[in-house]
């Protein structure tokens, strides 16, 4: 994981290079915008959808596979920001 771009206080870009369970190279972006009473955060991940990724998406729900981890990450960010 490497931070490759930032524009405080509105965005952060991270290069993610995975080795397991299969090799993947993705870019994760965090976009922040002020809203009444807080901040709206959009967390996105983009990258090529390889053959193995396409096959996996037929049989495995990505939301079920990583959704809880993403929710936990958002909750942790919220707790840190509110301290």
Brief rundown of the structure:
The protein is α+β, with helices and mostly antiparallel strands and 83 residues long.
Key phrases:
83 residues; alpha+beta; single chain; 4 strands; four-stranded antiparallel sheet; 42% strand
Written overview of the protein:
Helices cover 35% and strands 42% of the residues. 0% of the residues are buried. It has one domain (2-81). Strands 1-2-3-4 form a 4-stranded antiparallel sheet, with no helix packed on it. The model has no long low-confidence stretch (mean pLDDT 89). By secondary structure, the protein is of the alpha+beta class. A hairpin with a 3-residue loop joins strand 1 (2-7) and strand 2 (11-18). It has helices spanning 51-59, 62-81, and strands at 2-7, 11-18, 24-35, 38-46.
Helix run count = 2
SSE arrangement, N to C:
EEEEHH
Average of the residue pLDDT scores: 89
Beta fraction: 35-45%
End-to-end span in angstroms?
25 Å
Uncertain residue ranges = none
Largest beta-sheet characterization: 4 strands, antiparallel
The backbone outline, from C-alpha atoms, is: globular
Instruction: Report the radius of gyration as a whole number of Å.
Output: 15 Å
Oligomeric category: single chain
What proportion of the residues is helical, as a percent range? 25-40%
How many domains in all? 1
Q: Looking across the biggest beta sheet, what order are the strands in? A: 1-2-3-4
Structural class: alpha+beta
Total number of strands:
4
């Amino acid at each position: 994981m490497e931070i490759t771009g930032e524009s405080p206080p509105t965005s952060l870009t991270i290069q993610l290079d995975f080795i397991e369970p299969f090799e993947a190279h993705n870019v994760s972006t965090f976009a922040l915008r002020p809203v009444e009473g807080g901040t709206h955060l959009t967390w996105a991940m983009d990258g090529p959808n390889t053959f193995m990724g396409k096959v996996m998406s037929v049989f495995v729900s990505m939301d079920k596979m990583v959704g809880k981890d993403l929710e936990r990450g958002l909750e942790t960010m919220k707790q840190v920001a509110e301290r």
